[in-house]
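Hi everyone, sorry if this is the wrong subforum. Our group has a chain we'd like a structural model of before ordering constructs, and none of us has done structure prediction before. Sequence below.
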Amino acid sequence: MPFDVEYFSKKLALKSNLIFILKISGLFALCSFLFSSIGLDVLHLVDFGFSLPPAYVIGNPLEVSGISAEHLLGHVSWGVVVGIATFSFRYVVLGGLFPIALDADHLLQFLGLEMIPRFSHSILFAIVIFVIFYFLFGKKDIRLPVLASVSVFVHISLDIIIGVDGFSIFPFLVPFVGDMIEFGGFSWIIFEAFSIIPVFLVSVYYLKKRKNSSLDLNSSKNK
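Answer:
Right subforum, don't worry. Here is the predicted structure as tokens:
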């Protein structure tokens, strides 16, 4: 797949591609927002026996969440690298947008309520988003739910790098472990590699299967 600027611009300008990208990335952001709302303290999930980190009022995300050009461009770049492994223009763009869309949970901070920070930055959300995208799109193209799922790890990878002293904490194992887990050092490489490898393997499998199906179809037509 060519990656020159002219090719990229023409593909993005196609109405079908643009609508698809906006629709899918918007759905991902909505899922992150709704999932993170589970972490609002007003729901009292601890009363149901779940082990959760403490909730508190985080504050205005524009003031306390460290949103910057470095943050935004970094997440896009990290995600695009993973998206390239799909060999699809649409998924390269979505690969860059999904890690940013994960931060839709910051919108809850405007409510000024006690909440568990970064609730969607967890293995549980990675599983949930895979299941949702699989039932909506996976039967046509398994690459999309896999890309959506690993985008959680892509996001965490960059958050580790730009975190304080190269460390960052996440409710990574909620609701099974009630502590915020700290990652640092070279763990960002593990998260990024863990994102690229399954996407690449699934993409090779999908494209090979599609090619074989096309050959079988052409063979049956020629009989």
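For your construct planning: Residues 69-103+118-213 form one domain. The chain has a mean pLDDT of 88.
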